[in-house]
Amino acid sequence: MFSLSPCSLFSEQGDKLNMEERIYHILQIFQENIGITATFEPNTKRKDVSGYIEITNDDERQRMPAVFKKDVKYLHLVQFLELKEEIGDFIIVAEVIYPATREQLRALKLNYLDLAGNSYLRKEDWFFFLEGYKNKVPTPPQKAPGFTKTGLMLIFHFLNDETYLNATYRQMAKDYGIALGNITKIITALKRPVSLKKQKV
Questions:
Q1: Residue 83, SS3?
Q2: Which of 50, 67, 96, 140 has the least C-beta neighbours within 10 A?
């Protein structure tokens, strides 16, 4: 069985391992919000079940099948109900479940966990419910001006013709159809020292 310790699962198994990594992340958020232990065991037998989640609260344990979805849509609800009839209670683990869909899932007594931290788990005398968390929109990384498409075209020119480094900014702007101010930004960015991070492979 796998615990929630961080792991690098991105390898030749691609999508499956990517899914597992996402489930671990969602479970970690659930564990931090609720304060109980949750573990995930991948499933290799059924295609419609991603694995099994075991939740431990003091001395009590509940183990349920889990189904992973990137986002849950209304069209999934019928499939979920059919699966519940076949295997009993299970947990939908998703990166995104919109508020109206979460409401529908609760009305149908379908358990869920999402990446934002919202959760609804009901089994026998167990009941956990957290609502109101919103997904954070990731901020795209800022590109240095020297490494934009235009900046890379200039770098390529410099590499092929060193004498072009002596051209005026005005000439570069004319040759490439770039605003003079952007040429200044690109050259300034290229003059900055570059910090390279060494990573273990």
A1: helix
A2: 140
> Which residue in the block uniquely carries the two structure tokens 């489930």?
23
3-state secondary structure at position 2: strand
Run of H or E residues at 103: helix 99-107
- pTM for the full predicted model: 0.61
H or E element, residue 154: helix 149-160
Angle between helices 180-191 and 169-176 in degrees, nearest 10: 110
Tens-digit pLDDT profile for residues 121-144 = 998 888 889 898 887 655 555 656
CA distance 69 to 50: 9
Closest CA to 93 of 76, 13, 58: 76
Enclosing H/E stretch for 16? helix 15-34
Provide the strand spans (E) within 58-183: 60-71, 91-96, 111-114, 119-123, 126-130
Tokens standing for residue 100: 């109206």
CA atoms of 47 and 20, how far apart (whole Å): 14
Q: Hey, what amino acid is at 26?
A: I
Pull the structure tokens for residue 195: 């910090």
pLDDT digits (tens, 9 = 90+) for 81-115: 999 999 999 999 999 999 999 999 999 999 999 99
